[in-house]
Amino acid sequence: MDITSQIDEILSMDRRQDEVPSTENPHRLRRVSQEINGCRRDETANINTELVDSCPFHLKGCFSGPEGTPYENGIFEADVIFPYAYPHCPMQVKFITKVYHPNISPVSGAICVNILQDHWSPALTLRTVLISVQALLSSPEPSDSLHTEALQHFMVDRRSFEETARYWTRIYARSPEPVAANDSEVDDAALAGIERIHIDRFEALGFQRSAVIDVLRKLNYRGANVANILDEVVIEKLLG
User: Fold this and answer.
1) Is pLDDT above 90 for 19?
2) What UniProt keywords are attached to this protein's entry (predicted)?
3) In this predicted model, what pLDDT tens digit does every residue of 180-198 receive, in sequence order?
């Protein structure tokens, strides 16, 4: 049974009042059903949805990364919850897929996008929200960061940031792009966006590789910023 049929079956309960739970809101059900159908009809957006635990107000949305970005060829999943007061308050959306992006939390998947906060309007729909989230991947907003390290990386070395975001896409977003033979295991340096030559230099001093990567990542040891960070500062952090 597809997602629309599942919701239609739930809606049919509205015609049998003795079977409808007292907490049910048929208006919200109809609205969600219409929005899911809107996603299905828009073939250009390429957005797919499915119910979570057969709950019509808890969905998993799925969409592809925008072309021409580090997220291209990735398949991204988002968790969507429609609260009881929907559409008078915004749906709750967060990424399930790990994404390297200034406006997306790498821990919780929370997304900083204004239409899910103070710019919410009941006129917005599941389709427009997921398209906006998809568009956010193309245009990071430095003023609303949820991932400070990714933001610092983005600001100091755009090329390196994009390489790191592309690697996260290959590892976490089910990208069909083949992984190189020497990357058959997850490369912790690539995940952190730190050049191996810098890691090797401090590792040669006797420090553990994982500790070196962690310190260099936190110091934003990337691009032009490398020249501004003294070796003594790095070593002090490693010893501390």
Assistant:
1) no
2) ATP-binding, Nucleotide-binding, Transferase, Ubl conjugation pathway
3) 545 557 899 999 999 999 9
pLDDT above 60: residue 9: no
Q: Give the DSSP letter of residue 15.
A: G
Element holding 34 (H helix, E strand) = helix 26-41
Q: What is the 3-state secondary structure (H, E, C) of 92-141?
A: EEEECCCCCCCCECCCCCEECCHHHCCCCCCCCCHHHHHHHHHHHCCCCC
For 185, what's the count of Cα atoms within 13 Å in the CB-facing half-sphere? 2
Q: Of residues 39, 55, 62, 112, which has the active-site annotation?
A: 112
Q: Work out the pLDDT band at 20, boundaries 50, 70, 90.
A: very low
> What angle do the packed helices 196-203 and 231-239 form, to 10 degrees?
60
- Rounded (10°) CA dihedral 98, 102, 108, 110: -110
Helix (H) / strand (E) element for 63: namely strand 55-64
55 in active site: no
Is the distance from CB of 63 to CB of 45 less than 8 angstroms? yes
Query: Shortest CA distance to 230 belongs to which of 200, 221, 239?
Result: 221
Q: Which amino acid is at 177?
A: E
Tell me how far CA of residue 178 lies from CA of 4, 71, 73, 139, 191, in angstroms.
35, 15, 11, 26, 17
Domains and CATH numbers, the chain: 3-143 (3.10.110.10), 178-239 (no CATH)
> Is 199's pLDDT higher than 70?
yes
pLDDT above 50: residue 35: yes
